[in-house]
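Journal club prep — side note

Before the paper discussion, L.F. wants everyone to see what a predicted structure for a comparable chain looks like in C-alpha cell form. Sequence:
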Amino acid sequence: MKLPLSQASIVQFGTSRFLLGHVAAFAAQAIENGNSQEAILVVQTSSRPEGKAKAVALAQQASYPLHIRGLRNGQPVDEQLSIGSVAGCLVAQEQWQALEHHFIYMARWVISNTGDSGYQVADDTSLADVPSSFPGKLTKLLYARFSAGQPGLTLLPCELIGSNGHVLKEIVLQLARRDYHDTPFEEWLAAHCCWVNTLVDRIVSAPLEPVGAVAEPYALWAIQQTPGLVMPFEHPAVEMASSLQPFELRKLHILNLAHTYLVDQWRQNGLTESVTYVREAMQEPWLRNGLSEVMMQEVLPVLARELPDMDLNAYWHNTLERFDNPYLDHRLEDIANYHGDKLTRRLEPVVELGIKYEIATPRLCAALGRK
C-alpha cells in the first residue's frame, strides 16, 4: 500500500537514481524498522522526457526496486530491496500549485541532488510562475511558506559541493534580496530555516526501468551538527559530526586518490588497451600490490597524523571491497579524465602533509612528476 501524501514531510528535489538508492532507501528502511514515519514527496524539477516517465512511475507505484550488488566483509552481496518511502511525485512545471500547497503545509525537510549545475541561477527569477532553476524554485516556495505564516524547515542538500548547505543558503538569500525586498523574509530564512552541510558517498551504478536503481552495499551520509537540527530518521549509514572536513579529506585522499594512482600506473605501464575496468585492474597482482603499498606505506601513515580520530584502515578496507566489486563496471578511462588536475588535487596535499610530518612519500612524488 502506498504511503499517504499527508505523511510526506520530506520534499525531495530530483528523481536521480542516486537519491533513490541513497536517502530514499534510508528513509524506507527507517520506516520498516519503526524508527520513522516520515515519507517523501519527490519533485521532478526538469522537463526531460525520461525524468517525466520516472515521475509518473514514482507517483503510481507503491514501491520501487533497489538492487544491492557488491562485496560486504569479503562476501558477495546480491539483494533485492523494495523501497516504499515515496508517497508521491509531482512535476514542478505542470503541478506547481499542488507542490506549493504541500510545501507550505506539510514539508519539514528538504532534500536535493540536482547535479553539477544544480545551483546555477543564470538569468532565472524566483518571481516567474515556475522558476527554471532549482534555487529559483526553492526561493519561491520558501517565500510562499513564509507568507503563510508557517515555521521554517530544515534543508539537507546532497549535491557534491563543499559546504553545500551554506552555499545554498547564500544563493537563496541573494535571490530573496533581489526579488522580494522583504527584510523579514530574509531574517526568517537566516534564523528560522536550518541549512545543513552534508556529504554523501555511495556508488549507485545503474537505473532500473521504469524506476529503481542498482547500488553498492557501502553507503554514507555524513551530516554536520547544526543548531536546531532534527533529522527525519535514524539509519546506520547516517553519521553526525561537528565538522565534515575529516570525511571530505578521507574520501578525497583515500577513495579518490587510490582511483587516480591506479589510473596513473595503468597508463604508465601501457595497459590502456588490455584493462578496461577498476575491478580488472585490481586482479592484476602487481597493480594491486603497488596500490596497497602506496596506501599503507605513504597515504595512511600521513593521514593518520592529520585525522587521528578516524578509522582509516577500516575505510581503506571498504574502499578495496568497492574496487573489487564484481558487478560494477567502473571504467578507468572515465577516471582518467582531467588526470593532471586530479593528481594535483588528490596527491599533492598528502605529499605536503608528508613533509610536515616527516613521512617520506616517494611513490606519490613520482606520480606527481608525471603530471
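L.F.'s comment for the group: The radius of gyration is 22 Å. Keep this in mind when we get to the figures.
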